[in-house]
Write a structure and sequence with these properties.
The protein contains eight helices and 16 strands. The chain is an alpha+beta fold. The protein folds into two domains: 160 residues, Fructose-1,6-Bisphosphatase, Chain A, domain 1, CATH 3.30.540.10; 111 residues, D-Maltodextrin-Binding Protein, domain 2 (3-Layer(aba) Sandwich). A hairpin with a 4-residue loop joins strand 9 and strand 10. It is globular and about 50 Å long. Keywords: Hydrolase, Magnesium, Metal-binding.
Length: 319
C-alpha cells in the first residue's frame, strides 16, 4: 500500500536516513530542462538551484537540532497560540544568506519578514508576485511547527520553495530530526534522500489516514471543529502533527493519505505542494481548483480520495 522506503519508520530522534532492507536501490534524480511560462531552465541551472536550497535547509536544520530541547518564546504574534522564538529569525537569516549569496538578484519572502495575521500574509505574497523583476521568488518558512519546536517535540523543520514567474518549480523540506530530505523539481518527480517517492494507493476514504491542523486563528479553528466529528467516522484515522510541511511531505511519500487546512500562508504550503504533485498526488483549494501560491484553503492528497474528501468537508459545513 505504501512505497517501501516509507515503511518501518524509526523512532525519534534519528541521525541517519531511514533505510530498511526493503528500500529501493538509492538513485540520483535525473533532470532535463523545465519550461515555466516564457523561460527555459537548463539542467545545470536546476541542479544548482536545488543544491543551494538543500544546503540552506540543512544549515537551518542544524540550528534546529542544536536547540532541539525546546526554546523560549520571545513573542506571541497573531494570538497566544502563534509563537516566535529567537531561533526562527536566525534560521531565516541563515537560509536567506545562503540563497542570496548564490543568487543575489532573486527575491525572497520569509515568514519572519511579514507582520502576523492572514491579511498581512496574503498581501505579502501578492506584493512579491507583482513586483518580482527577476522572475524568481524564494518562499521560506524557517521553522514550520514552531509550537512543536518550543516544546521540544521533534516535528519541526525548514520549508523552502522557489517560484518562477509565479509557479512553484522547486521544493525542499528537510526534517533534521530524522535526516530526511524531501525534494522535487517540476516535471522530474519527488524524492526522499534521493529515493523516488509516490503517494499512497488508498482508493477509499475509509482506508485513508487524513491529517488536519489545530490552527491558532478562531475562524480556522472553528472550521476544524466542524470537520472533525464529520470526518472521524468516515476515515481510518485523523492525525494532527503540528507541521504543515511535514504533513504535506508525508502525503507525498504515502505515510498520510491526505492533508487539508482551512487557512495557511504561502510559506507553509509552497514546498509541500510540489512534492505532492510530483509524487503523483493532487493539490487544490477546498473548491477543487488547483492550488497556487495565493490560495489559503488547501487540500493535498493521493488524488484517488481527493474529491470524496472535499465533498465530506462541504457536508460538514467547511466553506
Amino acid at each position: 500500500m505504501y512505497p517501501s522506503h516509507c515503511r518501518g519508520i524509526r523512532s525519534y530522534p534519528s541521525s541517519t536516513p531511514s533505510n530498511t532492507s526493503t528500500s529501493p536501490q538509492r538513485t540520483t534524480p535525473t533532470f532535463m530542462t523545465t519550461t515555466t511560462n516564457d523561460s527555459t531552465l537548463t539542467e545545470d541551472h536546476l541542479r544548482a538551484l536545488l543544491g543551494v536550497a538543500i544546503a540552506a535547509s540543512k544549515k537551518a536544520g542544524e540550528i534546529i537540532l542544536g536547540n532541539a530541547g525546546g526554546a523560549e518564546v520571545t513573542e506571541r504574534k497573531a494570538n497566544s497560540r502563534d509563537l516566535l522564538t529567537l531561533v526562527d529569525p536566525l534560521c531565516e537569516k541563515t537560509i536567506r544568506e545562503t540563497i542570496l549569496s548564490s543568487y543575489p538578484s532573486h527575491d525572497f519572502l520569509g515568514e519572519e519578514d511579514v507582520p502576523p495575521g492572514a491579511e498581512a500574509s496574503a498581501a505579502a505574497i501578492r506584493e512579491k508576485l507583482t513586483n518580482n523583476y527577476s522572475g524568481f521568488l524564494w518562499i521560506v518558512d524557517p521553522i514550520d511547527g514552531t509550537s512543536n519546536f518550543v516544546h521540544g517535540i521533534p516535528l519541526c523543520m525548514p520549508s523552502i520553495a522557489l517560484a518562477h514567474n509565479g509557479e512553484i518549480i522547486l521544493g525542499v523540506i528537510h526534517d533534521p530530526h530524522r535526516d530526511e530530505t524531501f525534494t522535487a523539481i517540476r516535471g522530474h518527480g519527488a524524492y526522499m534522500n534521493n529515493n523516488p517517492i509516490k503517494v499512497g494507493t488508498q482508493s477509499s476514504l475509509g482506508d485513508a489516514i487524513v491529517a488536519m491542523g489545530s490552527p491558532p486563528a478562531e475562524t480556522s479553528m472553528n472550521m476544524s471543529l466542524l470537520a472533525l466529528p464529520h470526518l472521524m467516522p468516515k476515515v481510518r484515522t485523523i492525525r494532527m502533527l503540528g507541521s504543515a510541511a511535514l504533513m504535506l511531505a508525508w502525503v507525498a511519500c504515502g505515510r498520510l493519505t491526505a492533508y487539508w487546512e482551512y487557512d495557511l500562508s504561502s510559506w507553509d504550503v509552497a514546498a509541500g505542494s510540489i512534492l505532492i504533485e510530483e509524487a503523483g498526488g493532487e493539490m487544490s483549494n477546498l473548491d477543487g481548483r488547483r492550488w497556487d501560491v495565493t490560495e489559503r484553503k488547501i487540500c493535498g492528497s493521493n488524488g484517488s480520495i481527493h474529491q470524496v474528501l472535499l465533498e465530506a468537508l462541504k457536508e460538514a459545513g467547511v466553506a
